[in-house]
Each structure stands twice: as structure tokens, then as C-alpha cells.
Amino acid sequence: MTELDPPAQYYSESGELTGFGIEIVQEIQTLVGNSDPISVVPWARAYHMIETEDNVVLFLMARNQLRNEKFKWVGPVLEFSFGLYAKEDSEISSLSEPEARNLKSIGVYRNDVRDQILTQMGFENLKRVGDKLQNVKMLMTNRIDAYASSSLSYGIDASEAGYKESDLKLVMTFQTIQAYIAMSLNVPDHVVASWNSALKSMIDDGTYIKILKKYYPTANLPTKAITEFD
């Protein structure tokens, strides 16, 4: 399963499901001989399913302390940072964590990892929405002070909401993130290992970097997997 989150996963003009995550997973499936179909499911429902059901694969998922022991992991397949973004013409500039806590409201995508991280950090000024583009629209109409996004997707969020990347600015980075393909705990270890081996072969032969640069021209290969969290 996956969610729509361009350019990682989206429908092309011809109606084909495509994107970075789709191409990575489909290439791995080819290498390991798996032909299971990919379903597009809203994130909250998909996350509940991988927590409660057997033999579920969900991508792309940020790995953190809250999730680390709940799933098995293939990757990392992508690395980026999470931050708070404000309007370019906002008086808000570089924020410390205490200053961010004092903002009137910060928009987050409900049950998304950014919601979880900021909640765990003790932020009590979060305004949760069920559509991530609503965050941008609320920001641009001054209904929130900032919203949580990633270094790879905030410009896409802005464009899809009818604005430009330059309309937004980063005011605080709060975590570096690695994204993975997550699997239910009951998935056999040898299956997880075969998927990781296939991903490594894609990195070694250049297939991975070709797909990465196609969708994220400024992104680099992920660093060593972070498997322990404070």
C-alpha cells in the first residue's frame, strides 16, 4: 500500500500510478519475483492496517522512535529533513524551538510522522487537518503561522495548492528523516532480507540513483541506516 504524495507516488496524466516510491518498489518486486498489486490507501487507514494486519507492506514510511519496533524495514530509500515553513513575507524568520512553541498555530497533516514528532516534542499548538494541501492554503490566508513539511515536498505542496515554492520559507528544521518501505512484523525475515538485498543491488548498479534524480534532482543517496533513537 501507499498514499498519494507526489513526486513519490501519484497518478500521471494518463492515469498510471507512478513516482519515485512506485518505481523503487516495482523494481524491487521484479528482482525478488513479487507481483502483488500496489493499492492507494489514505495514510491513517493504511497505517492502522500495517499495525493490525499480517503481510502488509506500506511505503514510504519515515522511521522514528515511535515506529522502530512496530515494523520491519527495507531501506532507507530516501533521506530528507522536516521543518516548519512560513509565508515568505511573514515577520517570522529563524525560530528556536521555544519560539516555535509560542506560535499561535502550526499546521500538521493528521497522524503523519510530523504530527507524531511534534506531538512527542510537546508541541500543544498543532492544528491538524486531513488534507496536507489545506495546510498551505491556511498558511497563505493567515489562518496558521507555519506548517510542518519536508525539504523535498514543501515546494510541491505549494504548487499543488496554487502557489509557488518561493511563497514559502524555512523557519526551523526539527529532524533529519530517513524513509523506508515498512513491513508488518509477521513478514518473514528472509523476505525482508531479499528486499533489502534487491535495493542494495539497485544502488550498486546505478538503477537507484537514476530513479532518485528523476524525481528528486537535488537529493543524495541516503546515509547509513539509523536504527537506534534517543
From TrEMBL:
Domain Solute-binding protein family 3/N-terminal: residue ranges: 1-219
Residues in the signal sequence: none
A Pfam cross-reference name: SBP_bac_3
The name this protein goes by in its record: ABC transporter substrate-binding protein
InterPro entries recorded: Solute-binding_3/MltF_N
